Amino acid sequence: MSRPTVVFRPTVVIGLGGTGYEVTLKLKKRFIDVYGYVPEIIRFLSIDTTENIQSREKSPDGTKVILEPNELYAISVANPLPLIRNDHIDEWWPRNIPTSSLISGAGQIRARGRLAFFAKVGDINGLINQAINTVREIRSSKQAFSDNFQVSNRDGVEVFIIGSLAGGTGSGTFLDVAFLARQYLNSFSNITGLFVLPRVFANLPQTHLVKSNAYGALKEIEHFWNLSPSNPLEIDYGITKVKADRPPFDAVFLMDGMNKNGTVVSRPNDLQNLIADGLYIQIGSQIGLDAANVADNIRAYLATGEKVRGRNINYCSFGFATLTLPVQQYERMKLEDTQNLLKNELMATTANIDVDSEIERFLQDCKLGEATTVLDSLTESDRGGQIKPEFRIGEMKYDRTSLPTIKELYKRQLDQMEQRTAKDLAMNFHRLEKAATATILDWLERSLNRPNGLASTLQFVNILYQKIDELQQNVQRKSKEAQSNFSTLKLEPQEEKIKEASEAWFTNKNTIQAACQRYKERADQKWRIYLHWKRCDKAAELCGMLRNKIEKIQEQCQRIHSNLDKVYRDVEQNYAEVSRQGNSDNPFIHTIQRVDLESKRPKVSGEDFIRWYREKSQSLTNWSEKKAEDVKDEILAFMEETYRPLTSMNVEQVLADGNPEDAGEDLQQLGKLAVPLWQYQDSEIPAKQQHVITEFYYYGVESNNTIFSNPPLSNRLPKGKGNVSFVPTGEPHKLTLFRIEIGVPLFTLNGMKDMELAYLDPDKVFKHLHRNWTNLANLIPPEDDGGALRWFALALAPNPYSLIVNQKRQYFVHTDQARKLEDGILLLGDDRRSAFKAFKNNVSLVKEIAQKVDEITHEDKEKARFSLESHIKQINELIKNNKVSLPIKEQVELEIQEIDSYLEDLDVIS
Asked: Is the dihedral of CA 419, 421, 427, 433 positive or negative?
């Protein structure tokens, strides 16, 4: 597996709720796909109020990818009611929220998700602390080298918090998780929030609260950008108190179900995959041991603190797209050829040999062609020829003692003959068995290890079994016949002849000798029958042994066939899955179509496979002892090697070798597909502040040594407004683009007004995590006032302006509209907001003040500049020291922007 050398920072990924769990699991799979494991410097933690089913993700080798027990924490609270009686919970718990059990989710109610968090805050706080400390300690170069990655020289830990703002768990816990994590991090660390907006969930059942939940969560995020050492927030968790004097997040990514081009992600799973892809690039985005990463770049960009219409621009989104070689087509072709190899070469049902000739040759080699051949082989003498048992009478006396003498000789030699016969037959049986076994094994190796060998072998052994069975039955019949003949042939008649001759009145030696000779002949005949009988038994035993071996071969072949059949079905299923994946239309993948696959497709044959397999000192006979998955792995290993000339092509080389214009078109298409996943209205941002939106481009390449960093391809890469960065991913077939857009205020996002309407719906359940947070500023600023705010703000400036003054908490304006008895002063209102409202509604007054302001300014521009800059500085100091009340803070910040804009228009401030 190709592994790039990547610079990682200590990283903790925390997934909240169902969305957070799914993205975390998919992200873990990305690392396993490339590295084979998750580098120790990265830790995952999933927190949810329900158990998640872990069976959907698999690594390239088919192993299930799961979150381990130490990476999972399921919050379960059977009876939450007693919890809200605790002071630290009672201070924020909304009164109208039911306190039913928290066992299978938070029921889309944000406050219930937070309640579950508070119930288990001790455990969760410990898990977060442990994860951060664990990754922070991995710093040694030895570990980094062994794990094939480098550890950044920059201090700090990267924490990613992932979830949906639309549900109950993720949206109910994301702030507290960030506050707890922040207490363990130094100022060099980054907390990045990555949150899914409600569009992708809107059409799912039981999601009526997704828009109101998201709007409430976004109001809280927007509000807490203002946290600082002089404006902290203290949270009492019961076990500890946390003083939050920094915003909970350094960057917030918002992921919608649609981008500016109108491309829609309709399924949560597809969006979760895209987010995991982007996070994988982001985590490895530091190029060089001392360089900045994505979070650093975003944090630096946002450091100016610029606002648009009084709202923060600290929000990002990203798009992720892939330019790929047709790897799925490679895979389909490879699996298709694997099926053909199995079906036509390894499992074919028709033998491609002359089975009858093979069997005849085999039987001859084993000396089993005919019964006579087998029998003669069993009675071969080690001195040559055949064994011939003989009854020897030697120099016996032919007299009246001949009968008892010859009977004694027979008895003694019969035992010897039987023992010698058994020994000779056993020796010949062993020799024949050994020769037959060797022949069978040699034949089996030759027969199986050839194309269609399995079919040929099965057909061969089936016929051979019949032949051996017939031979066995034949010799068994001969054995019975010989046994019968042996029993029938009697020596008693010859004994009577010897008795008559030896007991005659006048004994004749020659007559006795002749009778004894005929006894010997009859004994020799009987012994020859005995030998034949016993060799027939031994031949039947040999046939039985061979039948057993053939049966085992049949079983071997059946196991091999069963394995191959299972492999074929698995490959067939794999092919269907790959074809289905290829047909699923992923709008963010662009496949290079210029590769002529058929011309590069390798030729796959059974002979090539068997030759390859034999070169590895292996025999197909081993497949009977292996598991089907092992057989599959071996066949696929051959296919991988055969396809290597095609699959080893990388996307960089294909683009470099092709027409530059074609390569440019492919790269431009990649840029279009990676448009960040949100929609917003540019027109909502004043023209002079359009510059606040910028983009960062991160390309995922095979290695640090990429040809895209040099012309001509570097000139054709989409770049956005700045330089591009390259992140090594170890994937040669892909070029990916992680395209970040930053600087968009929330009120410009499409769908924000719908979310606000849902939020304002009184029938919707309470939307915030604290019952006092309903007074947080709206996300959508007041409508355009036709420039009234600018003139109101400038008129409030001190001398030489002072056209509007605050006297005893009442606001007055110097105007020609005032009657003389009023000393030219007109009351606008009792507070700043009501004063501006009265001013804005008086069109003629606005025109009068605008004219007077311009006259004052042009009378002495230097004095005007000094007065306005001092005014801005004074107001900012009041805001910093929390001396501007929340109800008017938003308006005051907008006034400052208007004064800044006025000075820029006059070209007073460079």
From this structure: negative
β-bridge partners, 810:
807
Which whole-number Å values give the CA distances from 762 to 111, 212, 366, 625, in the listed order? 17, 11, 96, 71
3-state DSSP percent of the chain in helix, strand and coil, to 5? 55, 15, 30
Determine the residue type at 111: A
| CA atoms of 252 and 259, how far apart (whole Å) | 17
> Is residue 773 within 8 Å of residue 767, measured between CB atoms?
no
Q: Find out whether 445 and 509 touch, Cβ atoms under 8 Å.
A: no
Question: Can you give the three-state secondary structure of 45-88, one letter per residue?
Answer: EEEECCCCCCCCEECCCCCEECCCHHHEEECCECCCHHHHHCHH
Phi, psi of 352 (to 5 degrees): -110, 30
Phi and psi of 462, rounded to 5°?
A: -65, -45
Report the candidate in 228, 231, 309, 226 with the shortest Cα–Cα distance to residue 893: 309
Closest CA to 532 of 452, 494, 478: 478
| DSSP H/E element including 343 | none
pLDDT digits (tens, 9 = 90+) for 737-793: 999 999 999 999 999 999 888 888 887 777 888 888 887 888 888 765 667 888 999
- Angle at which helices 17-35 and 268-283 cross, to 10°: 50
For residue 800, cis peptide bond before it (omega within 30 degrees of 0) = yes
- Which amino acid type is present at position 277? D
- Alpha carbon 155 to its chain's center: 30
How do strand 42-48 and strand 11-16 relate by DSSP bridges? parallel
Q: For CA atoms 655, 656, 662, 668, give the dihedral sign.
A: positive
Q: Are 305 and 52 in contact (CB under 8 A)?
A: no
Q: What would the pLDDT profile of 96-152 be if each residue is shown by its tens digit?
A: 776 664 545 556 788 888 888 998 999 999 999 999 999 988 754 445 444 566 777
CA distances from 802 to 787, 794, 818 (A): 19, 8, 16
Crossing angle (nearest 10°) for helices 861-880 and 886-905 = 150
**Where do runs of H (alpha helix) occur along 763-881?**
788-796, 832-841, 843-859, 861-880
For tokens 């010949």, the residue is 428
What are the residues facing 79 on neighbouring strands? none
Query: Minimal CA–CA distance to 165: which of 767, 793, 797?
Result: 767
Diameter over CA atoms, the chain: 193
Tens digits of residue pLDDT in 88-106: 888 888 877 766 645 455 5
- C-alpha 23, offset from chain centre: 11
Q: Quick: pLDDT tens for 546-597.
A: 999 999 999 999 999 999 999 999 999 999 888 877 655 678 899 888 777 7
What pairs with residue 12 in β-bridges?
43, 159
Closest by alpha carbon to 515, among 418, 412, 407?
407
Amino acid in the structure at residue 474: N
| Phi/psi of residue 492, nearest 5 degrees | -60, -40
Residue 76 CB-density burial (10 A; 0-12 exposed, 13-18 middle, 19+ buried) = middle
Cβ neighbours of residue 240 closer than 8 Å, sequence gap 6 or more: 125
Here the tokens at position 808 are: 């005893």
Spatial separation of the C-alpha atoms in residues 829 and 819, rounded to whole Å? 17
Helix 886-905 and helix 832-841, axial crossing angle in degrees, nearest 10: 50
Q: What is the end-to-end Cα distance of the chain in Å, rounded? A: 56
- What DSSP designation does 558 have? H
Question: What's the CA gap between 464 and 591, in Å, rounded?
Answer: 55
Which element (helix H / strand E) includes 443? helix 402-448
**How many Cβ atoms from other residues are within 10 Å of residue 245's Cβ?**
14
Write down the H helix ranges in 183-245. 210-224
Phi-psi label, residue 743: left if phi above 0, alpha if psi -120 to 50, beta otherwise: left
Cβ(741)–Cβ(246) below 8 Å: no
- If you compute the radius of gyration of the chain from its CA atoms, what whole number of angstroms results? 47
